[in-house]
Amino acid sequence: MRLPETRDLFARKLEFPVPRETVVETVGSTELTPPDGESTTIQSVIEKSEVEEFASADDLYDTLMTRVGAQFVGRRYYDDRGSMPKQDDKSEVSF
Questions:
Q1: Considering Cα of 59, then 43, then 33, then 67, what sign does the dihedral take?
Q2: Which Pfam family, any one of them, does this sequence belong to (predicted)?
């Protein structure tokens, strides 16, 4: 499952507020598939958190988002704003 789809899963499968143990029992075995890298389960991500109860699907989703690994970030260090070249960089950039 892709990470953005988990919020709907939480809203469908869980009643909030919900304790962490119930999240793990109900949806913990769901695999999360990153754009690059190795997949993981919701349980393994939630266990990195110290939160014992989630007030809403958004709360659970936010916790999940802050605890997933770098493989879910996408292209690391990507800058689509066209950062300025360093002063000592003599190469020209043409658009």
A1: positive
A2: DUF5789
**Secondary structure, 3-state, the chain:** CCHHHHHHHHHHHCCCCEEHHHHHHHHCCCEECCCCCCCEEHHHHHCCCCCCEECCHHHHHHHHHHHCCHHHCCCCCCCCCCCCCCCCCCCCCCC
Inform me whether the pLDDT recorded for 7 exceeds 90: yes
| Count of alpha carbons within 13 angstroms of residue 33, beta-carbon side | 3
Q: Return phi, psi of residue 33, to 5°.
A: -105, 115
Residue 31 bridge partners (DSSP): 41
Distance CA 8, CA 88 (A): 49
Q: What are phi and psi of 73, to 5 degrees?
A: -75, -30
**59-95 residue pLDDT tens:** 999 999 999 877 777 666 666 676 655 555 555 666 6
Backbone angles phi, psi at 84, to 5 degrees: -70, 140
